[in-house]
TrEMBL record:
Residues involved in S-adenosyl-L-methionine binding: W64, G90, A91, G92, D112, W153, A177
Family: Belongs to the class I-like SAM-binding methyltransferase superfamily. EFM7 family.
Keyword S-adenosyl-L-methionine in annotation: yes
Transmembrane segments: none
Protein name, per record: Protein N-terminal and lysine N-methyltransferase EFM7
Protein encoded by which gene: EFM7
GO CC term (a single one): cytoplasm
Enzyme Commission no: 2.1.1.-
Physiological role: S-adenosyl-L-methionine-dependent protein methyltransferase that trimethylates the N-terminal glycine 'Gly-2' of elongation factor 1-alpha, before also catalyzing the mono- and dimethylation of 'Lys-3'.
Keyword annotations: Cytoplasm, Methyltransferase, S-adenosyl-L-methionine, Transferase
Length: 272
C-alpha cells in the first residue's frame, strides 16, 4: 500500500497569517484619560472655558492656583499688560496668557514644553476664546495677537523673540505661574528670564507659586537667590490665603498649601 502524506503546512500558516503573536491583547492597557474642562471667571464676569489635557507627566492636566491668582492680579494691574508684549513659561492651559490678550496686550507668546498634546491644547484654548479672530484670518503667526510655542527652559530664545515687532527687544512682561516646584530647572528658568526680559525699567517678570510640598518651601524660595545673583531685584507683591487646598489628600502643612505667594522680578537700576 502506498503511504499517503498530507502536507498541512499551508493550513498551519493560514491559522496565524496576519496575526502578531507578540501584540498585547485588546484592552491590555487602560485607555488614556480624556481631556477635561475647567472654568475661570474674570472680575468683569466673563467666563473662560479651559480645556486641559487628559493626563501629562509635566502636570499640564491641572489648572493651578497660581495661574488663577496671577490672572486676577493682572486684571487689577492693567498697566502691566495694555499695549505690552507678554511671554508665559510653562503655561499648561494658558489662562494668564488668555487674560492678557483679552486685556489689550500687544503680543502674547504662550509656551510650554514642546509636547504635541500640550501645544495643541494651548491652541485649542486660544481658538475657543476667539482671541485672534478680530485681528486677522491669516495663517501667518506674526499677525496674531497670541501664539502658542513649544519651548524648553534655558534653550535659545530666538524662536520666542522672533514673534516680537523688534526681535532683539525682549518682552515687557514674563509670567511664571507655579513652576518653582521643579527645583532642578531653576537655573534654566533664570537663564530664560535673562534672555527674554526687555532691558527696560518697566519690564517685569511675575513669579507666583504655592508651596504644594511645604517641607520643600526653602528650596522653592532658593529660586530667588539665583535671580538676585544674576543682578535682578525681587519684591513680594502678593500673599493670599485660599479657602481650601488644591490637593486635599496631600501631606504637609495645610495652611502653607493654601497660600499663594507672588513676586515681581525686574532689572536692578532700571535695566540698560
Amino acid at each position: 500500500m502506498t503511504e499517503v502524506r498530507v502536507d498541512d503546512r499551508k493550513d498551519d500558516e493560514s491559522d496565524t497569517e496576519g496575526i502578531d503573536i507578540f501584540a498585547d491583547p485588546e484592552g491590555f492597557y487602560p485607555p488614556s484619560p480624556k481631556p477635561t474642562t475647567e472654568t475661570h471667571t474674570l472680575l468683569s464676569g466673563r467666563v473662560l472655558s479651559l480645556r486641559l489635557v487628559g493626563h501629562n507627566p509635566l502636570w499640564g492636566h491641572h489648572l493651578w492656583q497660581a495661574g488663577r491668582l496671577i490672572s486676577t492680579y493682572l486684571e487689577t494691574h492693567p498697566d502691566l499688560i495694555t499695549s505690552k508684549t507678554v511671554l508665559e513659561l510653562g503655561a499648561g492651559a494658558g489662562l494668564p496668557s488668555l487674560v492678557c490678550t483679552l486685556l489689550g496686550a500687544k503680543k502674547v507668546v504662550v509656551t510650554d514644553y514642546p509636547d504635541p498634546d500640550l501645544i495643541s491644547n494651548l491652541w485649542a484654548n486660544i481658538d475657543t476664546a476667539q482671541l485672534n479672530i478680530a485681528t486677522s484670518t491669516s495663517s501667518d503667526p506674526t499677525t496674531k495677537k497670541i501664539v502658542a510655542e513649544g519651548y524648553c527652559w534655558g534653550a535659545s530664545p530666538t524662536p520666542l523673540l522672533a514673534h516680537l515687532p523688534t526681535p532683539s527687544s525682549g518682552f515687557d512682561l514674563l509670567i511664571l505661574a507655579d513652576l518653582l516646584f521643579n527645583h532642578s530647572e531653576h537655573a534654566k528658568l533664570v537663564q530664560t528670564i535673562l534672555d527674554t526680559l526687555s532691558r527696560s525699567k518697566d519690564a517685569r517678570a511675575l513669579v507666583f507659586f504655592t508651596p504644594y510640598r511645604p517641607w520643600l518651601y526653602e528650596k522653592d524660595m532658593a529660586f530667588f537667590d539665583l535671580v538676585r545673583e544674576k543682578g535682578l531685584c525681587v519684591e513680594k507683591v502678593l500673599e493670599e490665603r485660599l479657602e481650601k487646598v488644591m490637593f486635599e489628600e496631600d501631606p504637609g502643612d495645610e495652611e502653607l498649601r493654601r497660600m499663594v505667594f507672588g513676586f515681581e522680578v525686574r532689572w536692578c537700576g532700571g535695566g540698560v
